[in-house]
Amino acid sequence: MTDVRTAIIIGGGIAGPVAALALHRAGIAATVYEAYPSTADGIGGTLALAPNGVAALRIVGADQAVTDAATPMHRTALVIGANRVDLPVLAGAPPLRVVHRNALHRVLHQRATAEGIPVVHGKRLTGVRETATGVTAEFGDGSTASADILIGADGVHSTVRNLIDPHAPGPRYTGVLGFESVAAHTVDVEPGTMTFTFGRRGYYLYWSEPGGGTRWGANLPQDRPMSLAEARAVPSDDWRQRLWAAYGDDDPGAALIRTSDPDGLQVSGSLHIMPPVPHWHRGRMVLVGDSVHAPSNSSGQGASLAIESAVQLARCLRDLPDVPSAFTAYERLRRARVEGIAARAARINHAKAPGPVGRVVMPVMMRMLMKVAMKPEKTLGPEQRYTIDWDAPATTERALA
């Protein structure tokens, strides 16, 4: 085991609390520092947890509470105009779980509180001082905190990433804004089915909400990125008009927008991905979650990969003899897997706004893909069946992607 006994974690979203819980289980005391003044209620919409993400949550004792708050998706389908293709499923695998980010935050923070892990809000990191034996975080309010290591779980706009490497790449804008709402309209699909739809002018998805109606999300094409604050400053009626212009000629897109309350429209702002980050760690600082790997939402794996990485980092710190070897082993265990999944998602992302010809050709291509390339065990198996053996000692072995 390293001589690490304490850790500062910057970021209280998903990876931060999971890392704190896993470190606690490894015998390392962590404190989570979050820039927001309170748990980030209202920030973000629904996210997907793949079976591998739920398996990683099981290690920190949060799986049951999360699945209780989630909706299982047993089937997925792709629709382009009148053409529908049922996508393959992985035999014997648990269903995909969709859960609101707020609910996931609450579960993780409640679990951290139950384990006695401090979560301190209103602390925005501004700088770091390192010594041979520790690290001190400096916050915008003038306060400081010291520990053996510092973990950056502060998202795609990570401050810690830039402190590790001032030349590190930043997030790339995907060209779309995210929206979500619940419509009174009921779609004619079997409950537990997530439908991905390529409309005439944009991409959207939907599923039946257990409490009634239909939850839907849209990726609205937008030339320039907008911050969350900018996007939320736009009146809901203005966004509704833009959504109607994009999806009002689609079925069921028109009904979904028409029967959704504008005040209930969840605006997520610009969607970003992280390109490969050359340096995951330096000295006593290391990155985890979206700060170092944030694939397109097409992957369905963003949150799950963040949870996995948080657990693997704790495992390496538990078992390896010093900080450099622990951080190096952690990167070796994770890089190939997360970058491989990100590359697959990027290929899918290119097809999210097909033109008129693409709308005609894509159903044929997709059916060919179903028969020839998309063998679930080959394509989805390595992603969704992946589990972390917490009880096995971490070494410097290279993990399969």
TrEMBL record:
SUPFAM superfamilies: FAD/NAD(P)-binding domain. GO terms for molecular function: FAD binding; monooxygenase activity. It holds the Pfam family FAD_binding_3. Keywords: Monooxygenase, Oxidoreductase. Residues 7-342 form the FAD-binding domain. PANTHER family: MONOOXYGENASE, PUTATIVE (AFU_ORTHOLOGUE AFUA_6G14510)-RELATED. This is Monooxygenase. It comes from Micromonospora craterilacus.
